Every structure is written in structure tokens, then in C-alpha cells.
Amino acid sequence: MLNRKLFITVLWLGCLGVAASHAQDPSGRDLEKKAPIKTATPKPAPRATPVIKPIVTKPAQAPAKPKANKAIVATNKPATPPPAPTTSRLTLTAVPNAQIEIAGRSSGVTGADGKLVVNEIPIGSHSLKITAEGYEPWSGTLEAKAANTDFNVSMKKRAMTGTLVISVNQPGVEIFINDKLNVKSVGGRSITVEGLLPGTHQVRAIKAGFKEWRGVTPVNVGETRPLEVTMVPGISLETVRVAAGEFMMGNNNGPKDSSPAHPVSLGEFEISTREVTNQLYKAFLDAAKHPAPNPQLSGWQSNNFPAGKADAPVTGITWDDTQAFCQWLSREAGGTYRLPTEAEWERATRLVGGTYQTVSVAWEWCQDWYDPEYYQRKDRLSPQGPALKPTVSVSSKTPAGRVIRGGATNAAARAVRVFERNAMQPDTGRSDLGFRVVREAFIR
User: Fold this and answer.
1) Which end of the chain has fewer CB atoms within 10 angstroms, the N or the C?
2) Confidence of residue 75 (pLDDT cuts 50, 70, 90)
3) Which one, of 435, 429, 436, 437, lies nearest residue 316 by Cα?
């Protein structure tokens, strides 16, 4: 923009000069021509260049060395060392309330912080013994070497359980401790059972074809106790374990004597997987000199069961006969055998067969007295039935007796329902009435 204005100014001045050169004065003469005025374009002033002065660093001047002074060294004679201590002050750290014995003599008891201070312990080696409740005893050597001696002892807690090492003369023997299965034996090997609480423990050994072995053994804290189990051939009965638990006994839609349905809780027990057979019952007759079953109800002749019926259920026996058999079996097999209670029979059958009983081929004796109104009491914990023989009757013609359960293969379908109840006089037998047994748990 500045150059444009400058150009216009120069152009205007030029035109003005031309006009002046052709102008005439009043006399008619041409005026003297004048040269055009030239206008110079201003130039920018040169930019000053800054002058950078170099920085000159002067070398640091080393500090003046101080003048050395001649040191005066004093010469002293060596001091006489103090006499060596003859006793030591012992600070011993162990566990609280620990008895401390040094060199065979009682030296005190540690405090709540586990520390004990003993003064004037002679310098040298001393035997040290420490005992405390709940800990393994500690013994070792204490070295007192200086005026003050610190000695720390780490003590191991005593195990609060014991161990059984069981030797069995037969392989495949099931070992129960406090009626819980622990292990099965292997021929020629001992069985180690650890972690047993101190006290008395009951041990039971079972194997088919052998008499059951039972024993009691004490176990102490930190002790490993040996136990020898000798299995002897004998009579055995196959059983199934029924776990402890609760079930609904009876049925609200069944006969009047089986209602109301009510919860019942039972402990663990074992029940034979089948009824007592003719063959096993004959072994009882021969050993105990017991009378044979009624031949008209059982088919027995003298002391012999019918040919080909060795594994069939024995029938025609009375409730009183079953009691004599269970006493004999308990002696021979080594356990405690009896008839099942009505509640045990129903729970075992429900676990096996559901609503309809599928195991029995005959009615089966139970331990309880029969009472058609017993369920009204709703006994819940291991019911045993009426304590005494009731005065009520099963029907107008039959007085009250012992419970029978299960129904026979020739019975109507309704009679073999798992909750169906019936009764018989304890001194009476039937051709379709047998029994099975329960082996009591060792701990009751």
C-alpha cells in the first residue's frame, strides 16, 4: 500500500513538472524548463547485530594447606584386664509355666511371658531339662560363658491324640473303631489308625465265615498302642448296614392301625439280607438241643428240614423260638443279635423295596408288642412298641400278640404293603411265618 501511494505521488509530481515546463510568462516567452523532482525511496535502517561476549571462567584457587602442627603422642602403659567372671546371670526363654531344672536341681518356673532369670549360674556347661503341660519334654546342655547369658528354647507341642497299630491274622477283615468302618485288613500287614482321642475305644472285626471279634482298648495322648485281633472260623450271617436317619412311618391312607403317618428317627443298625434259613436253624437245633419246628407247619421231620429246602426260610417257628435262636447266634457269631423292631423293619424295607415289600417270602416276627392304637402316640425316637402286653385285641377273636410284618408270597397285594401291620401270639407258629435278625451297633 505504501509503494502504491509513493507511485501516485511521483506520478503527480511528474505531471506537474511537465505542465510547468510548457507554461509561458505573460510576455509570451516560454518559461525555463525545470528538471523533474526525483524523490528517493527511503531504505530501512540496517539491523544491529548483538555482540556476544565470551564468558571467561577463572580456575578455582586451591585452598591453602594448613600448616602442619607437630602432634604430641602420649605413651600410656597397658591397663590390667578385669578378672574373668565366675558366675553368669541367665535369662532363659521357653513357654509359659515351664518347670526348669539346671544340673539336676529345680531352678524355678517361667512366667506368663515364658521367661525365667536365674542369678549366679557358674560359668561352664550345665544339663538343662524343661517340662510343660501340653509340650514334649526338652533336655539339652546350657553353656554359661559370660556375665550375662541369654538362652532360648523352642518346645514342641505334644500330640493330643493317640495311635493304634492293629495286627490281624486274616486278610479282608473289616475293622470298625467305635462302630465306624476304618479300614480292611491286608494279609500279613498291620493296620495303623492315627488321630484317636484319648480314652477307651471299642474295636470290632468282621469277616464272612468267621466269628465276629470285639474288644476294648485304651488310648493315651501321644501313645502308639499295639492291638492283636485273632479271627476264628465260625457262623456268620450276611447283613446290610442301614444308616441312621429319619423317615415317615405308617400311612394316612392305609388301615386304621397304620395311621397317622409320623416321623421316626433311628440310629444305625445292621439287618440280615434274608430270612434265617433252614440250614442255619438246624445248626442252632443241633448245638442248643432246641425242639424242632412244628412238622405240620414247617415240613420238618425230627431235626431234619425238607429235602432241597436248605436255603428256604425256616417257618412254623414261634416268637419264643426266635429269642432262643438270637441268644445262640450272639454267642456263636460274636455280636448281639435280636429281632428287628417294627420301626427298624419298616425303614429297612422302605430303603430296599419302596412302597411294596420285595424281599420277604414269608411274614416275619418283630420284637414289639402289637397295639392297634400305638401310632397315636407318635413316638419319634427309636420306638420300641408298648412296654407291656396290651389288653386290646387284633380282632374280637384274637388277643394282642407280637407284631408280624411283610406278608407272604401267597398273600394278597394289600397285605404285603410296607406299612401293613399284623400280629400273632408269641407261642404260635404259622406255615408262612419266619424271621430275620438285626445285629446291634456296637455303640448304642
Assistant:
1) N
2) low
3) 429
Phi, psi for 125 (deg, rounded to 5): -95, 140
Residue 215 backbone phi and psi in degrees, to 5: -160, 170
Task: Return the DSSP state at 417.
Answer: B
Q: What is the Cα–Cα distance from 329 to 280, expressed in whole angstroms?
A: 10
What does the block give as the cell for 193? 489308625
Residue 244 lies in a domain: yes
- For the record, the C-alpha cell of 5 comes out as 501511494
Q: What is the pTM of this model?
A: 0.59
* Residue 81: all three cell numbers together: 584386664
Together in a domain, 250 and 330: yes
Strand order in the sheet with 191-196: 191-196, 162-168, 224-229
90 CB neighbour count, 10 Å cutoff: 22
Any domain includes 313: yes
The model's pLDDT over 351-362, given as tens digits with 9 standing for 90+, comes to 875 433 444 567
Which letter does DSSP use for residue 53 in this model?
A: P
Q: Do residues 122 and 177 share a domain?
A: no
**Strand 99-102 with 124-131, pairing:** antiparallel
- Residue 63 within any structural domain of the chain: no
| Residue 82, CA distances (Å) to 79, 85, 354 in order | 9, 9, 97
Structural domain of 95: 87-152
- Residue 56: pLDDT over 50: no
Find the angle CA(344)-CA(349)-CA(354) to the nearest 5 degrees: 140
The per-residue b/e assignment along 216-226, b for 16 or more CB within 10 angstroms, e otherwise, is ebebeeeeeee
Q: How many domains does the structure of the chain reveal?
A: 3
Note the helical H segments in 103-180.
none
Cell of 93: 526363654
Please state whether the peptide bond connecting residue 46 to the residue before it is cis, i.e. omega within 30 degrees of 0.
no
